[in-house]
Design a protein that fits this description.
The complex is a heterodimer of chains A (about 325) and B (about 350).
Chain A: H1 5-30, H2 45-52, E1 60-62, H3 68-73, H4 78-85, H5 120-133, E2 140-145, H6 152-163, E3 168-174, E4 177-178, E5 181-182, E6 203-207, H7 211-226, E7 232-237, H8 255-262, H9 266-276, H10 282-305
Parallel strand pairs in A: 1-2, 2-3, 3-7, 6-7
Antiparallel strand pairs in A: 4-5
Helix pairs in contact in A: 1-2, 1-9, 1-10, 2-7, 4-10, 5-6
Chain B: H1 3-10, E1 19-20, E2 26-29, H2 30-44, E3 48-52, H3 68-72, E4 77-79, H4 84-96, E5 100-104, H5 115-129, E6 136-141, H6 156-160, E7 166-168, H7 173-185, E8 190-195, E9 203-206, E10 220-223, E11 228-232, H8 236-248, E12 254-258, E13 261-263, H9 267-277, E14 280-287, H10 292-303, E15 313-317, H11 326-332, H12 336-347
Parallel strand pairs in B: 3-4, 3-5, 5-6, 6-8, 7-8, 11-12, 11-14, 14-15
Antiparallel strand pairs in B: 1-2, 2-9, 7-13, 10-12
The chains are: A alpha/beta (about 325), B alpha/beta (about 350).
Chain lengths: ~325, ~350
């Protein structure tokens, strides 16, 4: 597969931006400016950006809290996401939902998730089912984790998607820990993708820290689903590089494991490849990083100056009218 | 033994003949009225589709959807795997994409297997994100068919407590049709509880076409009276009306208020009947504690206390799973005699 310089530049920017966004939120948390929890996505940039870039604008994506890059790629502005974190009226949930939860916007074809993982899975399956019923050449892509893979709803959703052969891409991000629980306590199989066979659907494992592999695979799978050949499961192997949320020092994760995965950092690997391809040098890197900081500052300024929701509207909007 | 055979045994078969009155209304059974609404809406709105277990080729466990698969095809009357949780979530996704799905729970009891998708995702979605979730869940509710603990439940109170849902409980053929049309057209998730015991036992004149839409959230004075109010909904409405008939022969004038919607409640109608009679008996088939009756009683106590001449009385099933043996099931459900006893006691206060 050919990767155009434009695509790679876009991927590079959003992966870098997502990481910087993550770091900025941690700083805001330490300054006491963030209310509620904060989930780091560090180490997941290749998955969220690589997979989201495989979709067309009309396709629907249902990402998770560690897929912040996917929201950005799909057009959710950093100013809105920052507003959501700060509980402002200008966030996608207008201060009703917390951090990345409920951060969807159907006008951007983004479906928000809720804490009850994997509750967006059947929703995305229903969306894909609607595409099939309406004979629209669109696909739906949903993310879930190794922890959620133990929930019964994963079985129901994958089975349903396969029975009706809907255009659906399941992406399971196996980052080895669900809060403090290692995958060995979630399952007896080495690869979650082994379960795809049980639903009569293809499954493929990718290195979730390799942008090129994630993107190429998702492009192929999206094409497969769009042609009407049914759902596919992609397992992205990665590592959660921070605690479950910012309060968690993850003392339960062996230091050697983290050190090992530090060597596979998805952004460092992307940048090395870009330099090898002659697409990146020090000057370009400096320019990109300056752009990231400038855009991030603008998003933060927007959110910090945005109004909080009006308590007088507390009970409004419980029903659509 | 199949559920079909139980239904055939316990309820008389639906008549094939449809009586049309001079004003254009038709006499239908409760079941025929539900099917009429489904068929009417599917003919007029291509976005409407149905899904559920055995609803298509087989026509549904109770035959409510019989013939619809043949008329509308497999894309609009969808036989699904046994996956209520996924079914409701999929309905939400379809609703997001502009469709109007109607999910059939084979029995209301099984709705608990779809609980998260209903109360966590769909019910909260509009408040959290501003996106409407226009779906309907049809849930065959209640006892009387000797179905035992897992085919006789009345779980409406669970959903009354969950912010963001609407919950309707029609008791007559006209309301069954009128409320189902309103539920399908409503932009919110609506749970439509239909009463198995009424499917073939109740007949009534039902308007046709666009006539007879029943707004969600509006109660109905099923019988006007002055001495005592019975506030009820669902299957016990018919027992309440029989009790009111009998009390009329003893010169007691009973008002029967059929709530029709249990969320949002028609509080004005509840206060109006309280002001009118000053004595209120609340009757429902679901068990007592934390039920809809508790909410109705609390509202009256808080907002119409000065109009009461007697304590509020609730008549409901005891706090037990619905039992199987006919003598036990009959002892657990509100009926005409229990309503009469409670009414007379209240009248003598």
């Amino acid at each position: 597969m050919e990767f155009s310089p434009q695509l790679l530049e876009r991927a590079h920017y959003w992966m870098r931006f997502t990481r910087a966004f993550d770091d900025r939120l941690s700083a805001l948390f330490k300054q006491g400016k963030l209310v509620g929890g904060l989930f780091s996505q560090i180490g997941h940039e290749a998955i969220s950006v690589g997979a989201a870039l495989a979709l067309d604008d009309d396709d629907v994506i249902a990402p998770l809290h560690r897929d912040v890059g996917a929201y950005f790629v799909r057009g959710m502005t950093p100013a809105r996401v920052m507003s959501q974190y700060l509980g402002r009226e200008t966030g996608p949930s207008r201060g009703r939902d917390v951090n990345m939860h409920g951060c969807g916007d159907l006008s951007l074809n983004i479906v928000g998730f809720i804490s009850h993982l994997p509750q967006t899975l059947p929703v995305a399956v229903g969306i894909a089912h609607a595409f099939k019923l309406k004979r629209e050449p669109r696909v739906a892509m949903n993310f879930f984790g190794d922890g959620a893979s133990s929930e019964g709803l994963v079985h129901e959703a994958m089975n349903w998607a396969s029975v009706f052969r809907v255009p659906m891409i399941f992406i399971v991000e196996n980052n080895r820990y669900a809060y403090s629980t290692p995958t060995a306590r979630q399952m007896r199989v080495e690869n979650i993708v082994d379960r795809a066979a049980g639903y009569g659907m293809p499954g493929v494992v990718v290195d979730g820290n390799d942008f090129f592999e994630v993107h190429e695979t998702t492009v192929q799978v999206v094409e497969h689903a769009r042609k009407g050949e049914g759902p596919v499961l992609i397992e992205c192997k990665t590592m959660r590089m921070r605690g479950h949320a910012i309060h968690d020092n993850m003392s339960y994760v062996p230091k050697e494991l983290l050190a090992e995965w530090e060597q596979r950092d998805p952004i460092a690997r992307l940048e090395l490849r870009l330099r090898e391809m002659g697409l990146l040098d020090d000057a370009k890197q400096t320019e990109l990083m300056a752009r990231v900081v400038r855009d991030l500052d603008a998003a933060q300024a927007f959110a910090e100056n945005a109004p909080f929701p009006d308590p007088a509207q507390l009970t409004q909007g419980i029903y659509a009218v | 033994m199949t559920w079909d055979s139980i239904i055939q045994r316990d309820a008389p078969a639906a008549p094939s003949r449809v009586t049309v009155s001079p004003d254009g209304t038709r006499e239908l059974t409760y079941l025929e009225a539900i099917k009429d609404a489904l068929q009417y809406e599917m003919r007029h709105d291509p976005r409407v589709l149905m899904m559920g277990e055995d609803v298509g080729v087989f026509g549904g466990a109770f035959k409510v959807t019989q013939g619809l698969f043949e008329e509308f095809g497999e894309d609009r009357v969808i036989d699904t795997p046994m996956s209520e949780l996924c079914m409701v979530g999929a309905a939400t996704g379809m609703a997001f994409m502009g469709l109007r799905p109607i999910v059939e729970m084979q029995f209301a009891d099984f709705i608990s297997t779809g609980f998260d998708s209903i109360v966590q995702y769909a019910a909260t979605n509009h408040y959290r994100t501003g996106s409407p979730v226009p779906w309907v869940i049809r849930a065959p509710n209640g006892g009387g068919l000797r179905g035992g603990p897992f085919h006789s439940q009345n779980p409406e109170a669970w959903f009354v407590h969950a912010p963001g849902l609407k919950v309707v409980t029609p008791a007559t053929p006209a309301d069954a049709r009128g409320l189902l049309l309103s539920a399908i057209r409503d932009p919110n998730p609506v749970i439509y509880f239909e009463y198995k015991s009424l499917y073939r036992s109740v007949r009534g004149f039902v308007p046709d076409g666009e006539a007879g839409l029943v707004p969600i959230g509006r109660a109905n004075v099923a019988r006007a009276g002055a001495d005592l109010s019975i506030i009820t909904y669902g299957a016990p409405l018919h027992e309440a009306l029989k009790a009111a008939d009998e009390l009329a022969s003893e010169n007691v004038s009973v008002e029967v208020l059929d709530l029709r919607t249990v969320k949002p409640l028609d509080v004005d109608a509840i206060y109006a009947t309280t002001r009118k009679t000053s004595k209120v008996l609340i009757v429902h088939e679901a068990n007592l504690t934390g039920g809809v009756g508790a909410e109705v009683a609390a509202l009256i106590s808080q907002h119409a206390f000065e109009h009461l001449d007697a304590p509020l009385v609730r008549l409901a099933a005891p706090d037990i799973p619905p039992p199987y043996a006919p003598v036990l099931e009959d002892a657990s459900r509100p009926n005409k005699q229990k309503i009469l006893d409670a009414a007379k006691k209240l009248l003598s206060f």
